[in-house]
Amino acid sequence: MSNKPDNNDSKEPQLLHIVLGGELVDVRKTRFQDLSNIDFVGAYPNYSLAFTAWKGAAQRSVDNAHMRYFIIHAHRLFDPEHDHHDEH
Q1: Strand partners, 21
Q2: How high is the pLDDT of residue 2?
Q3: Sheet containing strand 17-23, strands side by side
Q4: Which of 13, 53, 69, 82 has minimal Cβ neighbours within 10 Å of its Cβ?
Q5: Could you give the residue ranges of the DSSP H alpha helices within the chain?
Q6: d(Cα 74, Cα 28) in Å, to the nearest integer?
Q7: CA distances to 1, 34, 44 from 68, in Å
Q8: 17-76: what fold?
Q9: Domains of the chain: which residue ranges?
Q10: Residue 87: pLDDT above 70?
């Protein structure tokens, strides 16, 4: 059973958050050792669900000091007023 509910019928705004992680070259920076081994945990419609997923992934990897998980606030990357991918 997934902890990601179908949010298509919700009246709340969808604020897309992406949770991913991987081993870092240096724990003081955010450069991944191998991008082909990124662990894509999932995409979530709000911060609360993303945080729950992040916490679970981080706890599962606690024994690996170089493993880090991140929440990307993807909704902040969208700019519908200026993103016109259909125009070339």
Answers
A1: 39, 69
A2: 45
A3: 39-44, 17-23, 67-72
A4: 82
A5: 47-60
A6: 23
A7: 25, 13, 18
A8: Alpha-Beta Plaits (3.30.70)
A9: 17-76
A10: no
Residue found under tokens 């902890």: 3
Using CA atoms, how far residue 78 sits from 15, 16, 17, 27, 84, in Å, is: 10, 10, 12, 29, 11
Closest residue by Cα to residue 61 from 88, 41, 44, 80: 41
| Tens digit of each residue's pLDDT (9 = 90 or more) over 15-57 | 999 999 999 999 999 999 999 999 999 999 999 999 999 999 9
The single-letter code of the amino acid at 86 is D
Structure tokens at 68: 């880090």
List the structure tokens of 37: 């081994």
